[in-house]
Amino acid sequence: MICYLSIIKDVVLILTALATATVAIIGITKWKSEFKGKTYFEVSYKFLKSVYKLRDNFSALRANFISVNEMLTNNDEIKNYDYENTRFVINNRLKPFNEAYNEFNSILPEIEALFGKELKEKCLQIKHVFFLYQDNLNSYMQLYGNTNNMEHFAELAKGVFMQSKEDKYKTDLDKLISSIETEISKHIKMK
């Protein structure tokens, strides 16, 4: 009888140990998937926030309306006031845009590590839109007041300042952001 009790005791201890190990493995697996999901969510949140901030600062940079608060003062004392004022306004608008752009760039390695090269490629396409804008802006500022070809200058101005809701930079940027949102939502739902 004592022999049977000892065997039953050992079997119960083994079953208890197996149950404990099973619960521990299930808990660790669940914790690991939650941690992975939390990481994806946090990086996605930070990334989308930087994308939206970049988009909003780009819109502000290109705003056609220039408020009095943005303009240079003492316009009587400044030679070439129109040019200097435009340069002053654009430089001041570029500061928050550049901060948002740097924030966007700083998260790209994490995006590539978590989401892969396809999403990074879309980010590079966004950077290309800004590169084209910068090129257009540089041409505009170089020709400001120094050209007889007003048609070309007016065309450059359309690119620098948003003239309508249907402009190329905005359309391209909106499409890229939409595709990024779709790509991220696929990853978040899977995890």
Q: Helix and strand string, N-terminal first?
A: HHHHH
Total separate domains = 1
Estimated radius of gyration:
29 Å
Q: Could you give the distance between the termini?
A: 54 Å
- Provide the low-confidence segments as ranges: none
Structural class: mainly alpha
Q: What number is the mean pLDDT? A: 85
Beta-strand portion reads: under 5%
Largest sheet: none
DSSP summary, beta strand count: 0
The backbone outline, from C-alpha atoms, is rod-shaped
Number of helices: 5
Helix content: over 70%
Please sum up the structure shown:
The protein is 82% helix and 0% strand.
Report on the structure:
There is one protein chain. The protein has 191 residues and is mainly alpha-helical. The chain has one domain. The chain contains five helices and no strands. The longest helix has 60 residues. It is rod-shaped and about 110 Å long. The model has no long low-confidence stretch (mean pLDDT 85).
Q: Which descriptors would you attach to this protein?
A:
about 80% helix; about 190 residues
Q: Helices, strands, pairings?
A:
Layout: H1 2-61, H2 81-115, H3 117-143, H4 150-160, H5 168-190
Helix pairs in contact: 1-2, 1-5, 2-3, 3-4, 3-5
